[in-house]
């Protein structure tokens, strides 16, 4: 930059120096023409050009330089030799013209010196450019070499390591050591690769462990599901099914023999024992039935010969202990947590099955007793009273015979006895029909439709059914009573109403009450007069009372009879009671 700045103005200096030669010739010409004013103007212009700043700048400040010497010589010739020749009077034009070539020659030397100096500066600049270019190329070479060695090579190594890690090879290393950022990154990659390898191995072990746990859990769930399904499908006695499940339990546990010891809830002694080893439902080898006091569980704290012991899981249903599920295990070797959980779940399942079986048996006994009580009540309220009345009539008939009453009175009494026996027979047939009613098809709707089809097809009465209890879950007892009330009401319509049409409507209102309406267009009914020997209306009232409902029987405004039953189903009683208590 310094050399370029020093060259600035050299061309102007050469131009000025060149113009001095032309101006000197012009002065010589003007001196001949004797034009004073014009001559003085050119003299001033010549001196101005001779002393111009560009020339002084091109010459420089070194008095010993050739340019300075030549310039001084030219200035001195002008001032000392040439200018006086033009200014003195008379002018010495010839002498001036003789000095002009000498002056021009000196100016040529001066111009040549300026040119040489300027070319020297250019040569220096050219050398500097060449040197700078060589230095730049050399520096670029070293920079590229450094970039390749310190950047590209480690980056390739790190890229290779990243690709190896991406393929799951965590044992590869980045072979690059340096105290810079890439070296730190390579060490971090190596450390990360080691940690990933350890983590991957740890995860593989964890996955294997979790897979084994899931497999065990799946086997346990499958065992519990199959056991629950088998017990659900089993008959009233679940003990054979429980005994058959001991071997699958043992296989799932992978432990020693599994056995089952059962006892009654009211007794401490056992009545049955089974083991998974025997396929013939035999007790285990340590069992001493019926002498339970000699059992190792009570006599030896569960210790058996051969270095094994019994681990017990009680079968409890509520507050009752129904038995024990046992597994033989080497002494000092505890069961794993999943084995304990599985055995506890199996014990709860067995206990639930036994409890449900006992509850079912108890409910069956209660149902049988209730059914016998219902039959006894029905027989007492209908057939027993009719037979008792006929017994009195028979005694009366005997007394009439003994007293010698006329034949007409005897025949009348005998006719009453015969009518009473026929009525009793009809009541017996009605009771048999009522007791044989059952819901073969699921739900009340199908049974009601079948009943309507049965009565309408054999009677000629047009029975129209509107059933709207699809979303009302009635209990089996409620369904039976509703069906019997409907059958009794339809039977009365067919036998006594002399109706051509009957409407049967079942629905539930917004308060949860179930309504059953049987309307006919017959002759109507007088509820205050009930024929002797007929108990249909009283049976309807009793069944309505069994449902905790209300029964209304009366004439319709349009003619005919209406039987209206309303009751609150069992599933609505508890919420309704809670609503009443809340309000």
Automatic annotation (TrEMBL):
Domain HAMP: 149-201
Enzyme Commission number(s) of this protein: 2.7.13.3
Major subcellular site: membrane
Topological type in the membrane: Multi-pass membrane protein
Coiled coil regions in record: 193-220
Subcellular location per the Swiss-Prot or TrEMBL entry: Cell inner membrane
Main enzyme class: transferase
PANTHER family: NITRATE/NITRITE SENSOR PROTEIN NARX-RELATED, NITRATE_NITRITE SENSOR PROTEIN NARQ
Designated name of the protein: Sensor protein
């Amino acid at each position: 930059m310094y050399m370029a700045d020093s060259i600035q103005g050299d061309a102007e200096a050469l131009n000025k120096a060149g113009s001095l030669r032309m101006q000197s010739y012009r002065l010589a010409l003007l001196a001949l023409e004797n034009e004073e004013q014009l001559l003085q103007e050119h003299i001033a212009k010549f001196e101005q050009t001779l002393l111009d700043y560009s020339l002084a700048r091109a010459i420089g400040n070194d008095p010993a330089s050739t340019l300075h010497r030549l310039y001084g010589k030219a200035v001195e010739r002008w001032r000392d030799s040439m200018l006086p020749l033009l200014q003195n009077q008379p002018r010495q034009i010839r002498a001036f013209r003789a000095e002009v070539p000498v002056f021009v020659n000196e100016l040529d030397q001066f111009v040549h010196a300026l040119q040489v100096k300027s070319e020297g500066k250019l040569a220096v600049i050219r050398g500097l450019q060449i040197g700078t270019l060589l230095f730049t190329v050399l520096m670029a070479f070293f920079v590229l070499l450094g970039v390749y060695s310190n950047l590209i090579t480690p980056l390739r190594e790190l890229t290779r390591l990243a690709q190896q890690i991406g393929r799951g090879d965590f044992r590869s290393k980045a072979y690059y050591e340096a105290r810079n950022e890439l070296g730190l990154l390579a060490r971090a990659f190596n450390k990360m690769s080691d940690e990933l390898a350890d983590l991957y191995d740890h995860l593989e072990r964890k996955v294997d462990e979790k897979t084994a746990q899931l497999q065990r859990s799946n086997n346990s769930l499958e065992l519990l599901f199959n056991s629950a399904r088998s017990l659900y499908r089993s008959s009233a006695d679940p003990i054979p099914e429980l005994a058959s499940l001991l071997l699958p339990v043992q296989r799932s546990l992978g432990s020693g023999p599994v056995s089952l010891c059962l006892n009654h809830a009211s007794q401490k002694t056992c009545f049955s024992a089974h083991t998974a080893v025997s396929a013939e439902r035999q007790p285990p080898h340590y069992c001493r039935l019926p002498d339970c006091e000699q059992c190792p569980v009570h006599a030896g704290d569960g210790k058996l010969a051969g270095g094994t012991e019994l681990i017990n899981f009680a079968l409890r249903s509520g507050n009752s202990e129904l038995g024990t599920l046992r597994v033989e295990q080497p002494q000092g070797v505890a069961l794993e947590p999943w084995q304990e959980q599985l055995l506890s779940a199996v014990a709860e399942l067995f206990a639930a099955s036994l409890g449900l079986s006992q509850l079912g048996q108890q409910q069956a006994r209660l149902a049988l007793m209730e059914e016998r009580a219902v039959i006894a009540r029905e027989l007492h309220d209908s057939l027993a009273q009719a037979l008792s009345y006929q017994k009195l009539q028979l005694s009366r008939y005997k007394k009439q015979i003994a007293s010698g009453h006329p034949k007409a009175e005897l025949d009348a009494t005998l006719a009453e006895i015969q009518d009473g026996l026929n009525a009793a027979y009809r009541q017996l047939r009605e009771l048999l029909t009522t007791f044989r009613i059952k819901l073969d098809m699921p739900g009340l709707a199908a049974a009601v439709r079948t009943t309507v089809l049965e009565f309408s097809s054999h009677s000629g009465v047009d029975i129209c059914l509107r059933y709207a209890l699809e979303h009302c879950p009635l209990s089996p007892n409620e369904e039976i009573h509703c069906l019997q009330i409907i059958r009794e009401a339809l039977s009365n319509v067919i036998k006594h109403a002399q109706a051509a049409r009957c409407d049967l409507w079942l629905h539930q209102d917004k308060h949860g009450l179930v309504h059953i309406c049987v309307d006919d267009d017959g002759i109507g009914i007088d509820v205050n007069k009930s024929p002797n020997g007929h108990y249909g209306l009283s049976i309807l009232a009793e069944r309505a009372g069994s449902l905790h409902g209300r029964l209304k029987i009366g004439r319709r405004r349009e003619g005919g009879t209406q039987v209206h039953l309303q009751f609150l189903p069992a599933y609505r009683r508890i919420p309704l009671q809670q609503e009443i208590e809340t309000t």
